[in-house]
Specification:
Length: 115
Amino acid sequence: MFALNFQSPNHEKLLISRIKNCTIRLGDIRDSYPESSVVWITFGKRFSPKTKLYPAIVDKVCIKKFSQLNAGDLDHQNPEIKTVEELITFFENIYERSITPNDTVTVIYFSEILE
């Protein structure tokens, strides 16, 4: 089983409250997260222990350019981020590199699996 790991404390809060059901990742990583696959939603810094939050199923995977992201993508990723420009700034801080509206992202929608 794969994991979708999140590092931002804000994302942890959104995941625990079940507000966040989408992640946008830099690059084309669709082969790592095929639709209908089961993943663990986890939280933790890179190279550190992770907290397992819940299992989820990957509902939908889309490859887009930053400039093609829509309001729904942004809202499900993080309701506090309202524009593509804000998301690019957020990603530049995470990835510590320059990002343009033409850069490719993978949009992954997921749903919690209830037991």
